[in-house]
Every structure is written in structure tokens, then in C-alpha cells.
């Protein structure tokens, strides 16, 4: 059984930074393609960033490009979302997700992911 647990959310002022962590248990996180999604009140869940198995291919949504970065530490079985230059529009619940895919492809549709964390709230004040 694979479990994902996010942490690191909180309240931050616009222009600030946060780093979210996603601890993966049950299987090595290196076996998975990973993604970070977010969902704001009244809006659909949307992809933020994604990385393929082996991190050979990565994706960033236009809204976060050059501000957010996904990375992983295989020794710690943890995936990170580094968020810089935060804006009030970044306010949402952030979820990490995993799918077992050795093709080297990332996935940007939430329907392609099997495992999900419970989410962590990020609030950016203006």
C-alpha cells in the first residue's frame, strides 16, 4: 500500500516562498511519476507541476512557470514543491499524486494518478 503525506503548507505573504513536502511510504518514490495539483474553492483541481519516473521529463503549468519547481530526494523518499514569488492566486489546497509509469512520460491529468495525499493548505495574503 502506497501512502502520500503532504506537509509544509501555511500562510505566507505575497512574494514569499514555501516548500511543500510529500513523503512517500510503502514503495520507493523513485518508482513513480509524480505530480502536484491544487484546488482553490469553487474551482477544479488543476495540475501545477509534474515529473516523470527518473525525472527525465518535467512539466510546469504556465501560471507557475519559473516560480515553482518539483524535485525529489530518493534517499528520503520525499518529493518537494518549491514555490517562490507566491501570489494570492496561488491560494489553494495542494495535493501530491503518484502513478507507476516507467515510460519516462509525465502526466498532467488528475485521472491518470492512482495515489493521492490528503492535501495541505497554502494561503497567500496580499
Structural features, described:
Strand 7 (68-73) and strand 8 form a beta hairpin. The chain has strands spanning 3-7, 10-13, 18-25, 33-39, 46-51, 58-60, 68-73, 78-83, 92-99, 115-116, 120-125. It is built from no helices and eleven strands. Strands 2, 4, 5, 6, 9, 10 and 11 form a seven-stranded mixed beta sheet that branches. A four-stranded antiparallel beta sheet has the order 1-3-8-7, with no helix packed on it. The termini are far apart. It has 126 residues and is an all-beta fold. The protein is 0% helix and 48% strand.
The helix/strand order is EEEEEEEEEEE
Q: Which spans have pLDDT < 50 for at least 5 consecutive residues?
A: none
Can you tell me the overall shape? Answer: globular
Structural class: mainly beta
* Residues in β-strands, percent: over 45%
Radius of gyration: 13 Å
Strands, count: 11
Average pLDDT rating: 95
Terminal CA distance? 40 Å
Q: Helicity range of the residues?
A: under 10%
SS element count, helices: 0
Please outline the major beta sheet: 7 strands, mixed
Amino acid at each position: 500500500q502506497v501512502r502520500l503525506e503532504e506537509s509544509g503548507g501555511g500562510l505566507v505573504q505575497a512574494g514569499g516562498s514555501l516548500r511543500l513536502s510529500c513523503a512517500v511510504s510503502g514503495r520507493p518514490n523513485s518508482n513513480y511519476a509524480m505530480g502536484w495539483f491544487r484546488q482553490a474553492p469553487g474551482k477544479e483541481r488543476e495540475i501545477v507541476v509534474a515529473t516523470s519516473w527518473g525525472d527525465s521529463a518535467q512539466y510546469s503549468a504556465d501560471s507557475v512557470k519559473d516560480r515553482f519547481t518539483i524535485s525529489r530526494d530518493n534517499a528520503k523518499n520525499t518529493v518537494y514543491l518549491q514555490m517562490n514569488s507566491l501570489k494570492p492566486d496561488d491560494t489553494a489546497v495542494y495535493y501530491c499524486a503518484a502513478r507507476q509509469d516507467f515510460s519516462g512520460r509525465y502526466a498532467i491529468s488528475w485521472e491518470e494518478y492512482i495515489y493521492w495525499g490528503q492535501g495541505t493548505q497554502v494561503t497567500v495574503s496580499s
